[in-house]
Amino acid sequence: MPRPNRGPYLNYVRDRGRWYIQWSEGGRTRQRSTGTGDSETAQVALAEFIRERERASKPAGPRDPGQFPIGEALAIYGAEHAPSAADPARIGYAIDALIRFWGERMIGDITRETCRAYGRERAKAPGTIRRELATLRAAINYVKDEGRITYAPTVHLPPKPDGKDRWLRRSEAAALLNAARNGHPSTRAYLPLFILIALYTGARKGAILELRWPQVDFERERINFNPPGRQRTSKGRAHQPIPHRLLTFLRLARRRGTDLGYVLHRDGAKLGNMKRAFNTACIDAGLAKPVLVPEVDEHGQAIMVPKLDEDGAPILRQEISPHTLRHTCGTWLAQQGVPLDQIGAWLGHSDSRTTQLYAHHHPDFMKAARDAADRRKA
Q1: Residue 158 placed within a domain
Q2: Which of 123-137, 237-251, 269-283, 303-317 has the least mean pLDDT?
Q3: The pLDDT value given to residue 86
């Protein structure tokens, strides 16, 4: 019967005149010098050695937020959670923006004032700041739930901005489509089709960019914006019949595509960011003007040039984005008298309150109330 492991103990080596810490590991006897011949000092060294072994053998307990770098929390969230999320690219964009301001700070530094300071330094629209800080909040809550910090401080988000009611009239949509068709050769292959899909289906930009040909059923004339295995989120995606005019354009595009490839692509690869192409088309269509900043040309003359964002896209004075096309689709449906519940289903709304944004565009909006008012006696 093997002898039980007695654990670390002190052993005095006379010919060296020192105490050694001795223990058994993997069936072998190991030693470490205490560097002293004094018994009491050696006992202190043994106690510290035992504590070190205990700390090393146990998983690290939750840390105080003041001792946990935000950059580490964002890295953990990006590596462990983002790959299984519905939109990992969006999380990646947010982390890239957050790390510049928060990377060297500790989680305990998160306060209402530092959140406001982030918004001022980022200098983006309130909706953008809110989405990025929501990613920070999710990362902090993730490391808290994983037992890495003792508590999660509050991440203060700016108020939710009012929903935009900007939609395109049909003449504006035609101008935008024409500008896309006459734009740079590198964008003519995908931008016009993106605009058509968005206007006819009301799908979000991410859903359209992720769309693959197997999700387009030409035989049944249906399109499913939910790729296989996609995690369902509050941002619902529709499975809808394909409008006949859009079907024609999709058939033409299909002849140029591959069996399993993306519907919209650049040389077969998925499109990452099309902001530059879209904003340029908006400017060319006369729907928006770029923000201009002074610059000196090669001759030393002062000129005004479009201000570009970090992605190289011109910044627009008037807020128009790919999401405007989704809102345009819903507005056009309401104007044609489509019931609100069908509009919600067409757009993939998970909350009927969101669909109410289009109620005032409906031709019967408050008609019953007006008729009742007309019948009321003075």
Answers
A1: no
A2: 303-317
A3: 67
Are 266 and 209 part of one and the same domain? yes
- Under the banding of pLDDT at 50, 70 and 90, the label for residue 27 is confident
- Provide the H-helix boundaries in the chain: 39-57, 70-80, 88-102, 112-122, 126-145, 170-181, 185-188, 191-201, 205-209, 244-254, 275-284, 322-335, 340-347, 352-355, 367-375
Using CB atoms within 10 A of its CB, is residue 160 exposed (0-12), middle (13-18) or buried (19+)?
exposed
What pLDDT does residue 2 have?
A: 45
Query: Can you list the alpha helix ranges (DSSP code H) found in 146-184?
Result: 170-181
pTM metric for this prediction: 0.64
155 inside domain: no
pLDDT at 234: 60
CATH (domain of 37) = 1.20.5
The answer to whether the beta carbons of residues 266 and 186 sit under 8 Å apart is yes
